[in-house]
Amino acid sequence: ALGVPTRPGQSALSGARAAAQLVMALFGRYGLTFAAPPVLPVLPRFAEGRLLPRAEARPAEPGWMAEAVERIAADDAYLDLLADALADQHLAHDEVAALAALASEAGLSEAHVRSTHEQLVTALREIAERDGVVTATEARELRQVATALGVGAAGDLRPVAGGKPTRVLVLGTTVEADRLRARVLAEGVQLAKKLTGSVTHLVADSSVPANEPRLGRAAELGAVVLDVRAAPVALGFEPPPVAPAAASATPKRLGGRILMGVGLLVMFIVVVGMFGGTPLAGGIFLGALGVGALLGGWWLAEPAPR
What we know:
Layout: H1 12-29, H2 64-70, H3 77-85, H4 93-105, H5 110-129, H6 136-148, E1 160-161, E2 164-165, E3 167-171, H7 175-186, E4 190-191, E5 201-204, H8 213-220, E6 224-227, H9 231-234, H10 251-275, H11 280-301
Parallel strand pairs: 3-4, 3-5, 5-6
Antiparallel strand pairs: 1-2
């Protein structure tokens, strides 16, 4: 709305940027003015210099829940408020507490609030089940929302892929394989003991040889074969990693590269001068300056270890 992104990132910096864009849109594009001259607080003054905005992760793309809340008919003001809170695909316990406090101030009973929570989770569950396919991501996010709202039973949704439930067979004897088996059960996904036609995903760890017959057989049955490290994301247990925004080269690094260039130039001049008969003392002095510039520039330009 108003040309401002509706789903900024979760950081305070993203919220501040969104608020600044909103103020500029209201006062610039739409011509709003203050009813009275604002009285600004006295703030400390910082030394002037070039601003270096912090690079942050790109906001996640709107998921199924962000689209689902837009399809819920919100004829209740509190339900509409809940749907808005879920628009960023994140609902923390402090947000739920703040919403409950607002509902209490508005005179809504505890029973009405709980009924509204159940109504929202039930509506989201019906939307997730409508196409006959429930992904592990949908089931996980719905359980998280239901738990945050205190109606965990209403969000008891099991993943279903292509009309059949998701069944995972984990092969291997490493700790990673054991952890994944426990994670599969904790996420409410069926854990298979042997390879059958009902298995939808087969996960193998490093202890499974490449010529394991069940790997080829799983592909023939149409099951997805995964590495144990990639399985949590592929199964929807964890969100995919978000690539951080590429940060531009800092002035410090640029200055380091310039200093290295100056050092190389000085070294070149010293070598040419020494062949041309420059006194030894002067050559040593200039050579030391060139080496110092090279080392200093390298120290500035070299990225710090992470």
